[in-house]
Amino acid sequence: MVTIRLSRGGSKKNPFYQIVVADIRAKRDGRYIERLGFFNPLAKGGEVELRVDRERAQHWIERGAQPTDRVKQLLKQAAREESATAVAA
Predict the structure, then answer these.
(1) 2, 64 in Cβ contact below 8 A?
(2) What local confidence, expressed as pLDDT, does residue 87 receive?
(3) What pTM did the predictor assign?
(4) Of 46, 56, 54, nearest to 77 (Cα)?
(5) Cα–Cα distances in angstroms (integers) from residue 67 to residues 13, 64, 87, in the given order
(6) How far is the C-alpha of 8 from the C-alpha of 88, rounded, in Å?
(7) Of 69, 78, 7, 20, whose CA–CA distance to 49 is shortest?
């Protein structure tokens, strides 16, 4: 079974997460199939907080990948941000 989840990086008290597609048996920060984007919860100023390849995420979901609860929230947030920038343009 395949899952879409967060893989933690960064240093102590400075988290940085990769959004990855991985086998459910793989370690949290271990081997993954594909990297879909990133999430930086401590982004400041002009830094990008969230970047996701929504097309590839949808591709994996259609093929049975199960996103975690947090990744579901992040995908919804990315969709809202994308639609807000489309309206503003």
Answers:
(1) yes
(2) 76
(3) 0.90
(4) 54
(5) 25, 10, 28
(6) 33
(7) 78
